Request: fold
Amino acid sequence: MDNNLHDYRKSYEKSSLDRGNLNQNPLQQFRSWFNDVEKSGSLDETNAMTVSTIGADDFPKNRIVLLKYYDENGFVFYTNYESEKGKALIDNPKTCLSFFWPNMERQVIIKGLAEKLPDTVSDNYFASRPKGSQLGALVSNQSEIIENREVLENELKSLEDKYQNKEVPRPKSWGGFLVRPQSMEFWQGRPNRLHDRFRFTLIDDLDWKIERLAP
Ligand SMILES: Cc1cc2nc3c(=O)[nH]c(=O)nc-3n(C[C@H](O)[C@H](O)[C@H](O)COP(=O)(O)O)c2cc1C
Reply:
């Protein structure tokens, strides 16, 4: 078996980023890139992002979640507050989100502070989910060790019966996090590894400092 990937090489040639086409507001820059990726139609789950946390063991851990909302305040995803990531973020709200959009040869990296969304916001989003997903949230004590798959399927079955004609309540352990960005970095692949990178850093909670970074 040959595990040598040295010849995996690609020249990035699709686009460029400079002061002229960079929006002065990073959220608007994000929106513009997100829309480009959506419009291109060639990528599944444009809203899939990596969330990294520092856990009680002092190790960073990354995992994918789905971005469900964003605006000037920040980026929202939903999860179990008692999962490994939930506990880590409640303990240490410093986090990093990142997107890789290979079809546009782009990466966005966001450092920020996570906070729980107000209950009413999580309630509204939970109520909008399909019943199967709602029950799934009730069934799964995310990140806990379980004996086997049957444990989940049996629990789902009994909850399906219980809530057959009833609204499923949002479990208190499930809800959203808002990540308020402190820095946002935009990476556009370019030929010869001379990629374009711009970093926005929030100054005094007010203005964004913009710097070009070496690739
Ligand atoms: C494409 C994709 C989307 C996912 N979306 C979510 C999500 O929105 N929320 C979530 O809690 N987990 C989501 N997951 C599962 C997480 O990656 C992870 O397995 C889970 O949240 C448990 O993580 P933890 O034990 O580190 O807390 C997704 C996984 C993939 C691959």
Helices lie at 26-40, 84-91, 119-128, 131-139, 149-162.
